[in-house]
């Protein structure tokens, strides 16, 4: 685990702890219930978040949260982690990233700070590829964020997900940590 880091915009990124998961769950709940950014239809339970957090940490992968100085010290304004890409052993060094910013906190550098903090903590001994799977509908900001950090678009799956009465394309982006700098 690394310590907290505060960037030039005042965003502090630190390793998540289990007491942060209520804030993480609250942010994600919004995206499940109101957007197509995730294809989940059901909000994960607190037990599911704890299991996911433990799995990520046991795999020595980053799970970070962001706070802002003008907000309550315990209010999480965003989170990011490197999760499992696919469950088969051949994919053990490939991950899928997730980055979510609390509604109303976009445009303050939270997403960039989270991406930087997550990449800084990525262990090249157990992570080679990071894959981003981004809903194309409403995903322009996420696509731009990933491009700024060296991800390249490697494909698009057309009409792959159905949510909110619409078919949604997914953009796949990829970053090879072994062939590129972390940032």
Automatic annotation (TrEMBL):
GO terms for molecular function: acyltransferase activity, transferring groups other than amino-acyl groups. Pfam families: Acetyltransf_4. Residues 11-178 form the N-acetyltransferase domain. CDD domains: NAT_SF. Keywords: Acyltransferase, Transferase. It comes from the Bacteria. InterPro entries: Acyl_CoA_acyltransferase, GNAT_dom. PANTHER family: N-ACETYLTRANSFERASE, UPF0039 PROTEIN C11D3.02C. This is N-acetyltransferase family protein.
């Amino acid at each position: 685990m690394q310590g907290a880091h505060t960037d030039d915009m005042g965003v502090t990124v630190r390793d998540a702890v289990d007491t942060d998961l209520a804030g993480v769950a609250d942010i994600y709940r919004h995206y499940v219930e109101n957007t197509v950014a995730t294809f989940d239809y059901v909000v994960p339970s607190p037990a599911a978040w704890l299991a996911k957090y433990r799995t990520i940490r046991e795999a020595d992968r980053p799970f970070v949260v962001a706070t802002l100085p003008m907000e309550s010290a315990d209010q999480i304004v965003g989170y990011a982690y490197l999760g499992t890409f696919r469950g088969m052993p051949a994919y053990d060094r490939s991950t899928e990233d997730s980055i979510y910013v609390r509604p109303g906190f976009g445009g303050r550098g939270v997403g960039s700070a989270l991406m930087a903090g997550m990449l800084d903590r990525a262990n090249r001994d157990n992570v080679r590829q990071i894959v981003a799977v981004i809903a194309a509908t409403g995903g322009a900001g996420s696509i731009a964020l990933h491009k700024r950090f060296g991800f390249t678009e490697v494909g698009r799956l057309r009409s792959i997900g159905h949510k909110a009465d619409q078919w949604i394309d997914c953009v796949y982006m990829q970053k090879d940590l072994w062939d590129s700098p972390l940032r």
